[in-house]
Amino acid sequence: QVHLVESGGGLVQAGGSLRLSCAASGSTFSNDAMAWFRQASGKEREFVAAINWTGGRTDYADSVKGRFTISRDNAKNTVYLQMNSLKFEDTAHYYCAASTYFYLTAPSSQGKYNYWGQGTPVTVSS
């Protein structure tokens, strides 16, 4: 079992930065692929970024490439999402997810993640 708790969301002006954290409890974190997804009001949840179990492989949605960076600290059981140059359209609820079975890759498909956090809200003012 993996329990995920996100933090670091909030209100920021366009062009600003935020760093989201996802703290994991459970014995499998260091062997899991981790990802961030987001869901804006009235829209479906979408992939943002993913990282494999070693941190050696990452993937990003085209909309955030060059602005967001996903990283992990296995010693702290934590995955991070550094968000720079934030835009109004980045406003959403951000969710952390863990994949126990697809740990070698950094999958972008929601169906490959079997643990989810409750999310943290990010609001970017224009």
Q: What does this molecule look like?
A:
The protein is built from no helices and 11 strands. It has 126 residues and is mostly beta strands. The strands form 2 sheets. Strands 2, 4, 5, 6, 9, 10 and 11 form a 7-stranded mixed beta sheet that branches. It is globular, with a radius of gyration of 13 Å. It starts with a strand and ends with a strand. The mean pLDDT is 95.
Keywords:
126 residues; mainly beta; four-stranded antiparallel beta sheet; globular
Task: Give the structure's gist in a few sentences.
The chain is mainly beta. The protein has strands spanning 3-7, 10-13, 18-25, 33-39, 46-51, 58-60, 68-73, 78-83, 92-99, 115-116, 120-125.
Mean pLDDT level:
95
Number of strands: 11
Q: Runs with pLDDT <50, length 5+? A: none
Query: How many individual helices?
Result: 0
**What separation lies between the terminal Cα atoms?**
40 Å
Q: What is the structural class?
A: mainly beta
Let me know the largest β-sheet. 7 strands, mixed
